[in-house]
Amino acid sequence: MILKNAKIFVDGLIRKGALYINNGIIQSMKFGSSEEILSHLKELNENGRIINCNNKLILPGIIDIHSHLRDMGQSEKETFLTGTKAAAFSGITTVFTMPNTIPPAITSEQVKKWMNKAEGNIFVNVGFIAGVPKEMNFEEITKIVELGVIGFKIYPLSTLNEINWTDPLKIQKLLHISSEFQVPIFIHPDKSISNDERNAILQDYSLDLNNSLEWHDNLYPCRMEAEYVNFILENYYKIIVDNNLNPNKYPIVHFCHISCKESYSLIKKALKFYNNLKITFEITPHHLILSKKISLKNNNFGKVLPPLRDEKHSQYLYNELKEGRVEFIGTDHAPHSMEEKLRDYLDAPSGFPGFETYPLLLLDKVSRYELSLTNFVKVASENPAKQFNLKNKGLIKEGFDADLIIVEKISDYLVKSEDFKTKAKFSPFEGFKTSIRIWKVFLRGDEINNEASEPKGRLIKRTL
After folding, report:
1. C-alpha distances in angstroms, 407 versus 60, 91, 359, 375, 436?
2. Most buried of the four, 71, 155, 327, 402, by CB within 10 Å?
3. Is 345 helix (H, G, I), strand (E, B) or coil?
């Protein structure tokens, strides 16, 4: 297959040219617009298929390192088929999914079932992040690691395994496991406020039902996110010093969905003073673009953990992204049924879909010169592939997988959740404008964003 008359993002530049793809691999790239260049590729083109891109932009497929594909006891919210179809139509060609399934993926047996359920039912590539086995059983952890999970996830506020993740000894044991296996630990950074403070906030909420996003932010304040980040950093330093670890044996920690300036600054300060730390973090599109002041038809559609914050945080984090100081974006795609989201605010679950708004809104920022294309591709594709050792992905390069997204700038139109492929037909981005259209998406050279496409995604497994 040949993609001709394209603008191709290569090595930080947009170059006019053509790609030759064979057996799912980018075999050749030719730059320029002469017929002589195209005729050379035509000689190589075995299947004879040629797609005229008409000057549209080709980017590497997006890698989303944080999603909840549900299924496994939660098919009313999402299935592997619907979730990965939503990703495919959005230009996201690889996703990592989290372990809060029913039952949770905290045993090797459950992780196997999880992976088997995905096999043959995914339109994009999927990597699996497991929960931690009860009592951190070493034998069970070994079995899970051998299954090829990307890493382990912990939720301090809602543990999957009856482990108290505010206990320093438990965290130190977990970091030892990361050090031993060199496996990443994905951390939802947060701590609970006191019962007295919680009760006072709930009392205020009962008197002001229209201010629920503010209330939600107060229940899960920035200071608790920062406290937990600091708690992890202190224990990280401790096991390095106590065990005299070489940098190649440092634990690997990834902080999920950092939402506040304070916690962001703590991580950045640590990385500035200690170059060898194996610590990374992500920021979500909604914590970059939205704030708790947003006006919604139903505030439940904006209820998420961590909560939407004050504008000073989103503005600060977005500026850091613009300046190239953010390395990863994760959507935290978290679909729920409409029935759940229409409950009273206290009873409605946190989370909303993110696949189908992420590329449209961030690339729209690029089109309006509010974000560089280079920085977008780094956080969306290049950095995730490099950090998580996804070989031959994240770049447009000869010998790399033909996981590609072709986009074009068109007239502004509105985001409409009723058009989503996910089962979750709601969004806090409802009615936002974008000028970006996802034209075609390829997974190893197969077009995956049309209704006739088949689920040809593969399981991404971490190698030991």
Report:
1. 11, 9, 10, 17, 7
2. 402
3. coil
- Dist CA 349 CA 373 (whole Å): 35
Residue 284 backbone zone (phi > 0: left; psi -120 to 50: alpha; other: beta): beta
Active site residues: 332
Strands of 377-460, DSSP E = 404-414, 433-443, 446-447, 459-460
Q: How many residues comprise the chain?
A: 464
Identity of the amino acid at 357: T
DSSP three-state, residue 68: coil
Distances in Å between the alpha carbon of 128 and those of 125, 136, 145, 370?
10, 18, 11, 33
CA distance 137 to 120: 31
Q: How far apart are CA 120 and CA 447, in angstroms?
A: 17
Instruction: Please state the three-class secondary structure of 371-418 as a single string.
Output: CCHHHHHHHHHHHHHHHCCCCCCCCCCCCCECCEEEEEEEEEEECCHH
Helix axes 168-181 and 222-242, enclosed angle (nearest 10): 60
Domain map (residue ranges) of the chain: 2-52, 60-437
Model pTM score: 0.96
Task: Give the 3-state secondary structure percentages of the chain, helix then strand then coil, rounded to 5.
Answer: 35, 20, 40
Alpha-carbon radius of gyration of the chain = 22
- Say which amino acid occupies 236: Y
Q: How far is it, in rounded angstroms, from Cα 355 to Cα 358?
A: 6
pLDDT in tens, 342-381: 999 889 999 999 999 999 999 999 999 999 999 999 999 9
Task: Considering the domain delimited by 60-437, tell me its CATH architecture.
Answer: Alpha-Beta Barrel (3.20)
Tokens of 109: 């047996």
The C-alpha atoms of residue 42 and residue 134 are separated, in whole angstroms, by 58
Share of the chain above pLDDT 70, in %: 98
User: Omega into 103 within 30° of 0, i.e. cis?
Assistant: yes
Q: How far is CA 428 from CA 97, 206, 321, in A?
A: 22, 23, 21
Separation of CA 355 from chain center? 9
Q: Which two tokens stand for residue 408?
A: 């074009």
- Give the model confidence (pLDDT) of 154-206 as tens digits: 999 989 889 999 999 999 999 999 999 999 999 999 999 999 999 988 887 66
